[in-house]
# Entry
Amino acid sequence: MKVTVENKKGLNKDLKVLIDKKTINTYLEEKYDEIKRNVVLKGFRPGKVPKEVLKRQFGKAVYGEVLDKVLKDTTMKALDENKIKPAGQPKIDLKTFGEGKDLEYIISVTELPKVNIQSIENIKFDEYKVNIDPSETDKRIKEIAKNQKNFKETSEDYKASNGDLVIFDYKATVDGKDFQGSEGKNTQLELGKDLFIKGFDNNLLGVKKNDAKDIDVTLPENYPQKDLANKKAKFNCKITTVKKPSEVEVNDEFAKNLGAKDLNNLKELVTKQINDEYKNSLENLTKNEILKQLEKFKVDQIPENLIEQEIKILSQGMNEEESKKNKNKFEETAKKRIKLGLILNEFGEQNKIKVEEYEIKEEIQKQLKMMPGQEKMVMEYYQKNPSATASLRGTIYEDKILKLIKEKAKSNLKNISKAEAEKLLKSAHDHEHKHSDDHSNKDSSEKKTKSIKKTAPAKKGITTSKKPTKKKKVSKK
# Structure
């Protein structure tokens, strides 16, 4: 194989590749030997079909398959030998080809630019730890206790009021007739919530234990039995119990009912819960701070083909007029995203960061735990959508890169209060909202770093601008 680099224009290069006919013939011989071992043709014993017969039968198809294989093998080899990392798929232009001839073709490729990341250790960033005041924890536990209603029985002369729990049996009729579901035992209503039938609660205000009460109400429009919707119904109710809410005592027993070992353990769990509510958001602030500093790194040129791809993504859903109007903004945003992706990808490659299959499986398992009852649906989604798995791989890759950058850069840990955390997050939210009023400026860290997946060197795939013949797959049976 002979390779010469031609027409260097910035990041764009043409590589002229010449494969002599002897090499092509070697590939052809191997292919015919393979077919000969497996093909079954009438009149010939297995493995004994003459090569001339195979050529007449499968000649064009065999050459087409061999040509594809040679192009795949030699294209990536030519790029590797010339230390070219392609930004996107290379294009192939066949110049000379055919059985008994040398193969000559041109690889047109846009190269990824050189990225200097030597000063990564000079990056400085803030990390945050929220110190939760014990009073905040106590306040949250009191809120939990308030929602854990504890009802106690009352005396027989106690009259029910809003907030009380009334337990009763009933028998209902419409036009004097029973209907399906017209009887109920030990029905419980917390007065004031109006959760049974609209207006029913008000009729129970003032009832006492052992009272009998007739209540006339209109069945709702969405009543399950459509023929009874909006009909007037009479409920004959027998009040069995009236309970009054009492304040839940916050003690070890209360904590155990919530799954904690004791009250101290509950306080620890609640403190952690409050801290976790801020953790992810504050980690995003740190991430954005690092990304902003990475954007200052020097990248000489941004590949035009990647910019065009990114602009197409940014302008999705827009008409031609809107796209033209926002073209300059889109281009600026595209360049920033791609530049950041190039920097992150270069750092990942230099540090040999890889994503293992078990890491993807672990991430999917995390998602399954977060969606109880929908495990099968989530698994099927990833099984049927390879692009979703690829996107997950890209996210994990990005997270591993940023984690390593954090380890190499200079961290400044800040202990802050809950109030300070809220102020920080509000300020960041207001700033982001201010800069995301239009479609083109939605530059969240997630969207910026998605470019990492686009700027990675292309896999072994090629686009051919000229094909020799329409070929069929060789059948071996």
